[in-house]
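Record 1 of the preview.
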Amino acid sequence: MITQCSSEQLIFQGFGSKPIVAEFNGGQITSDAGALLLAETDRLGGYLKRFAACFIDYRDPLLISHSVYQLLSQRVIGLALGYEDLNDWEQLRYDPMFKHLCRGLDLEERTSTAEADDALAGKSTLNRLELTPEDASQRSRYKKIVYSDQAIERFFVDAYLSNHRVAPQQIILDLDATDDPLHGRQEGRFFHGYYDEYCYLPLYIFSDDELLCAKQRPSDIDASEGAKEELERIIEQIRQKWPQTKIIVRADSGFCREELMQYCETHNVYYVFGLAKNSRLLRKIAKVMKKVRRNYFRFGRSAQRLYRELRYRTQKSWSRFRRVVAKAEYLDKGANPRFVVTNIEEDLWSAQALYEDLYCARGNMENRIKEQQLYLFADRTSAHTLRANQLRLWFSSLAYTIVTALRRVGLAGTQFAQAQCHTIRVKLLKIGARIKISARRILVSLASGYPYQEEFHTIVHNLRLGFSP
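->
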């Protein structure tokens, strides 16, 4: 096996008179044997295959060494394992585990042992994949792999739908926008006053912990811009398969816009949006705010809250009166009034339950966004064009989709059932193993001292049982 690492010995302090000598010459050894779990999840769920079908490859099939499937596998599985930098692949391309997992079915099509031992794609090839312009064709010189944004957008919704064998009675679609800090001169770069930085403003849509939309956007826009169009697309696709499923849309006050509420009201979709407080709303709950303040001091300075129903309409922007739930609250830091607007009837959700059990649960989505940004590098958008950075966001989103499927199906009933991506990576994916390839099989000898062997067996069993028809 070709390697490019230094053969220089590393000398460490040993025991007694014997020093410890280390070299990078172990041969067919990997530090990422747990990637087998990711590959098994992907194989059973078919995520990367369907994602690869969203690309058009104009390259000459007789002249290429790395298929689109393989290139995408390298980027997505690499992100899941913590390798966000394309430079990492200058050495990872020789890793025996990556070589066999990322080739997938392509390996079976190779007739030559020498071809099967070829290294994976390097950083330059992977970089061309990301930088291919939308108008590339067979006549283009280098960059010839073009993605279809519409196909990829449909893919994430299809992946969500395929994860459920039976149509649920109700789903909740959470919308949120977040900042993606920029440190260069990227296309679409603007300064955002709220975040006090140059950034993108991507739009996310989740259902529970499953991602349906990750839309890269410049930051010189309202947080809700484009949300109606994304909701229309997603809801139409969902209802084609689940026509009877009740849909609730949930978001903070940044999405409390007339066009979104009107769309929901005319398309049989429920919504609950945060509503920014103003002087008119505060006057409507002035008496109850005085009451909770009085109770706060009367009952030993403990938090006090009461809920009130309102019928409210803005002076200009709203087309009708709507149901508003007001939370009158007094805390150690002082008055904390909050409002939400909804089209859900009071007999279905009372004021307190609507706010505490339904609306406040949207905070879980923010944890999912942080998980993707912190551990799967969704904010690694250092390419120049917005199109290339959108593709990078989708790579991260697909890595999240596969890890989430592993967590939902494989980790069910184990101590890692609620683990975040980082914990899954450290505890279950980063495993040392020796790989031996013979004419009949590929033998992966995992580290004997690995502490979670029993859970590993359970996870493999769960995956095969959970994805079986």
